Structures are given as C-alpha cells and as structure tokens.
Amino acid sequence: MEKKPLPELDRICAAFDCEGTWISSCPIPSGHINDTYCSEFGAAGRRVKYVNQRINHLVFREPELLMENIERVTRFARERILAAGGDPARETLTIVPTRDGESFHRTPGGTYWRMFRYIDGARTYDRVEDLRHVYSASKAFGNFQKMLAGLPGERLHETIPDFHHTRKRYGAFLAALEFDPANRAAAVKPEIDFVTAREKDTGKVVEGMSSGRIPERVTHNDTKLNNVMIDDRTGEGVCVIDLDTVMPGSILYDFGDSVRLGAATAAEDERDLGKVGFELGLFDRLAAGYLSAARDFLVPAETELLAFSARLLTLECGIRFLTDYLKGDVYFKIHREGHNLDRARTQFKMVAEMERQMAAMDAVVDKYL
Ligand code: GN1
Ligand code: MG
User: Fold this and answer.
1) Which of 32, 56, 165, 241 best tests ligand 1's pocket when mutated (most atoms within 8 Å of CB)?
2) 222 CB near ligand 1 (under 6 Å)
3) Does the beta carbon of 226 sit less than 6 angstroms from any atom of ligand 1?
4) CATH, domain 131-368, list 3.40.30.10, 3.20.20.70, 3.90.1200.10, 3.40.50.360
5) From ligand 2's centre to the CA of 241, what distance in Å?
6) In terms of DSSP H, where are the helices of 300-338?
7) How far apart are CA 84 and CA 183, in angstroms?
8) What is the distance between the alpha carbons of residues 124 and 131, in angstroms, rounded to a whole number?
9) Residue-wise pLDDT tens digits, 133-189
C-alpha cells in the first residue's frame, strides 16, 4: 500500500559514530511500526553491518525517553552478560552513538533515527520452522525477565501508556465502532460480535494488576517469536531484540503475547482461515521453554493465569487490529486492502481454538511448573 521513498541512509549513517565507509543500505521488511534497514560499511578490507531504525514517533511519542530506557536496559544486560562470561556483542543490542555521543539522531525534518550493531551468525524467524526454536525463544524471554528483575534505579518510562491495558483497548474499540470513521463497521458484524461477547475477559489481568495480586515487573511487552535472534549454529536464543516496549508490566503480557505467533499454524495475516489455528504441541514447547527460566520467580497469581493469558493477549491483539481497521488503518502499517481485518480474523480464530482447548492448555502449564 504505502510506497515511501528510500531515505538517504548514507546521510543518516554519517551522523553516527560507526566504523569505515558506507557502501549500501537495504530495507529489512519486518515490524508494523518502525522502519528498519541494514547498512554495510567497508572498514580496512572488512565489511561491517549495522541496523538503522527510524523510530515511529507518532506511536512512540517520546523517543528520548524510549532511548533512555533502552540505554539503561542494554547497559545493565551488558554487565550481567560479562559477569556470566558471555559475549555482550551478541547477547544484547549494542547502541551505536551519534558523533555527538547521543543514543539517537534527530534529522532537520524531525524524524528520529538510531543505530545498532548487526548481530552475525543468528537470525529471526517470522514463522515456526523448527520446534526447538520455539522452546529457545520462549526460554530467552523468560531469562530476559529474570535478568531485568535486578535492574537498579527508577521505574522505567512507559513508552506507550496502558499498552496492554486490555480493558482500555476494548474501550478504544467501542469508540471506533461508535464513530465508524471509515464506514466499515456494517461489513464486519461477525468480528464485532466476537469481540463484544468477550468483554468480561478483558478485565481479568488488569484488575489483578491494580489490586496488586499480580506483581508489576519489568517486561518486554512485544514477545513475538521474531523478536529473539536464534543462533544459526546452536539453535539457541542468543539475543532478545525490539526493546521499544520494555517497561513496567506483567509477565502475563509477555507469555500470552508469545503464543499468538509461537503456537500459530499460519502467518498472522494468512487469508485462508482454514490454515490458521492454534497448536497445542507448540504451546507445550512455549510453556516448557518459558517455565524452564521463569518457574522459580513466578507467584501463583501469575502461574494460574498463564494459559488464560495466551487467549487474552491474542484477543487483545485482534481487538487492536480490528480497531485500526475500523479507524481506516492509521496505526499498523498495511500492505494490502483489508490487511488489518485479515490480521484480526486470524487472531480471533486462534482465540476460539484456545477457548476450546483451555483445559489442555492449563494441564500443559501444570506439567512444567
Ligand atoms: C507491532 O511492529 P512490531 O511488529 O514490532 C505492535 C505489537 C503487536 C504487533 C502485531 C508498538 O509490533 O504490539 O503485537 O505489531 N507494536 C506496537 O504483530 O504497537
Ligand atoms: Mg515491536
């Protein structure tokens, strides 16, 4: 749909303190919010790669605070990785500062850019290709939470307030439905009914959070399988990436959200709903991986909702896609007509399947506790 001209990445790169001379840049077409590119530099006969990202400042309203969070988190991760004898250049993101020593660059046109070192010998997967990756990625998210439990200092900034406040997401959906600005509501009645029939689910985790039963922790909040880099050689999760939404939250947001993609039989935007489903065997691998890292620090108020959280976060994401469809596609990038509606439908199909398999999902969680 959207055809943006390629930004002048050689000029953007020049603002950063990177090695060598710029050779080329190309887009990395993943993510619904920011724009990501890979740039190659030549340095003393070697090739060095970097990742450039334009931060979507309409979504992340305060890029300065967002980068402050990422600086703190990666600095702390580096210390921990070094103390454990690991390699911080591969196991956490490395921010490349600007020539003025800042963590991001603001262009005269008002766009925000940052740069990371490229991690070699590892890659991300948009679809499940190997069961072991599901286990590894989920374990990496568990370990990430465990590590960040020790983050010293003040509470992190909320880069998007109420990001996983499912009840407020539901409220935003009702508002979009009422105003129906793109005149699309009449054609999506089954999807609307699917959501309104599940209103009571939307309060469950947020109420536990506000009563203090469910502890607030530092969480990732965007735990798609493709936000963990998997080592090409070992198949282990080497590095958790996409740290924009690392902020105070519940582990239920992280575990639940990881199931949307990690236990899906098809892509998030698959049009043939016959192919879309929730697979218990994949859920088993997610639960096993996650709990191998997190079992020791979770409290009962969390573990008893782990299986439910999968259903809830998938519903939430579907609500967000449907809301954006009703609003005329103003938030998530789309690449075809009806893209957000297709995405909402896959999420709802998964929710329906999870609802039917709730008892089995709870049994899987119990098995690994
Ligand atoms: C967005 O851009 P990406 O793919 O990292 C969204 C997530 C959604 C996801 C759905 C800041 O993430 O919350 O779960 O799309 N990120 C933001 O695929 O809204
Ligand atoms: Mg993200």
Assistant:
1) 32
2) yes
3) no
4) 3.90.1200.10
5) 9
6) 300-303, 306-327
7) 56
8) 14
9) 999 999 999 999 999 999 999 999 999 999 999 999 999 999 999 999 999 999 999
